[in-house]
Amino acid sequence: MKRIIIICGPTGIGKTTFAISVARRFNGEIIGADSMQIYKHMNIGTAKPDPEELKQARHHLISFLDPKDDFDAGLYVKAADKSIEDITTRGKIPIITGGTGLYIRALLHGLFRSEPICEKTLSQLSRDLEEVGSLSLYQKLEKCDPKAAQKIHPNDSFRVIRALEVYQTTGQRISDRQKNHDFDDLRYHSLKIGLYMDREKLYDRINKRVDVMLNQGLLNEVTTLVENGYSFDLKSMQSIGYKHMAMFMNNEVDWADAVRLLKRDTRRYAKRQFTWFRKDKEITWLMHSQFDLAEKLIKEFLT
Question: The pTM is what?
Answer without folding.
Answer: 0.79
